[in-house]
Amino acid sequence: MPVKNRFAELLPEITAWRRDFHENPELLYEVHRTAGKVAELLRGFGVDEVVEGIGRTGVVGVIKGNRDTQGRVIGLRADMDALPITEITGANYASKTPGIMHACGHDGHTAMLLGAAKYLSETRNFDGTAVVIFQPAEEGGGGGLAMIQDGLADRWGIQEFYGMHNMPGLPTGSFAIREGAMMAAADQFDIIVTGRGGHAAKPHETIDTTLVSAQIIVALQSIVSRNIDPLKSGVVSVCVVETDSTAHNVIPQVVKLKGTARSLDPAVRDQLEEGIKRVAENVAAAFGAQAHVEYERGYPVTMNDPTSAQHAAEVARQIAGGVDMDLAPLMAGEDFSYMLNTRPGAYIFVGNGDTAMLHHAAYDFDDDAIPAGSSWYAGMVEARMPLSA
After folding, report:
1. Which of 70, 291, 303, 373 is the most buried (most CB within 10 A)?
2. Environment class of residue 377 by beta-carbon count within 10 Å: exposed (0-12), middle (13-18) or buried (19+)?
3. Residue 40: enclosing H or E segment and its boundaries?
4. Strands 129-135 vs 58-64: parallel, antiparallel or unpaired
């Protein structure tokens, strides 16, 4: 199962779709143009059923194989949304929407899955049903959960989910995967520190919330270094410090800290949440201040089912000649995790070559990865639901 010749033939067409999506990026659930074009193309391919509005603006296409003797159903997912970043690539197909760009390659994922859908609609060389899933709001909006809550898995009887993401730094068209935890749970927290504001020249008359906040930021790092098993992973990052004054000579009454906590293990996730609250509240109390912690759990761990990961790797191996099975887990989050929490399946990386990193203003998807990515999507359907001899 090398790269399928049909995708080499389709490459100019798929590339044109990808670059059109790139020129016209949309955020979160507001992917109306993208979803509309996806649905229009799927209908043009002769997909058996096309349903819009799943998970608010998601699109689902159903492709029936030449046979259906076992009642097998495989789901393939791509994400459609962009990021609030101003593009600096200088490409002739650069974003035409100020302040928004496809800086994570979702335009490429969508185009590759569309290519696979066209091929599968033409060939139908499988025994069962393929469900192609185009998801909104991966970038912080929980679109995967919204689609699941809208009945995605049960309505179409999906038995396994497979998803893919491009990865800069891996050779273009190569693949990498691991069994078990692939990407982290991604939580966020707000810490509101309240003291007693006043004149900066009279700090003794205040409870200095900037000093307290600085101590909290430093102390939070002790959670991972001293509370978490050294053989497990955790991240606590404070990313925003806001005060209720911007004056050079005012000690603020209130300081707000915002940050993220990442983990690969449910027990570690619990430890991080408890530790952030404990450290913030008690450090603040030691200085006579108060700290109120708001902790919000986000995307869960992206957990590859071991058997499904092996299936995904075997298809990738036949396409690329090899696959990296020793990829270290990433501490970034991914809401495909909601689908993997509902059914077994796996998530794989396809190489994007020596490009800028994801979420960078100079990032661009490498169109040369399209034949490998589309071949993998289609190959998963044919490998998991083969026609009997």
Report:
1. 373
2. buried
3. helix 32-45
4. antiparallel
Contact 268, 329 (CB under 8 A): no
- Spell out where the chain has E strands: 49-54, 58-64, 73-79, 129-135, 160-167, 175-176, 180-183, 185-194, 198-199, 234-243, 250-251, 254-263, 290-299, 302-304, 345-351
What are 216-265's pLDDT values in tens digits? 999 999 999 999 999 999 999 999 999 999 999 999 999 999 999 999 99
What is the β-pairing status of strands 185-194 and 58-64? unpaired
Strand duo 160-167 + 345-351: pairing: parallel
Buried/exposed code over 18-32 (b: 16+ C-beta within 10 A; e: otherwise) = bbebbbbbbbbbbbe
End-to-end CA distance of the chain: 17
* Phi then psi dihedrals of residue 260, to 5 deg: -135, 150
Amino acid at 188: Q
Token code pair at residue 297? 């759990």
Q: Are strands 160-167 and 234-243 parallel, antiparallel or unpaired?
A: unpaired
Bridge partner list, 296:
188
Phi, psi of 379 (to 5 degrees): -65, -35
Smallest CA-to-CA distance from 234 within 204, 259, 255, 212 is with: 259
The predicted-structure confidence for 149-204, as pLDDT tens digits, reads as follows 999 999 999 999 999 999 999 999 999 999 999 999 999 999 999 999 999 999 99
What is the DSSP-derived secondary structure letter of residue 80?
Answer: -
Both tokens assigned to 258:
């915002």
- Alpha-helical (H) ranges within 223-301 are 266-286
* Closest C-alpha among 84, 86, 99, 103 to residue 21: 103
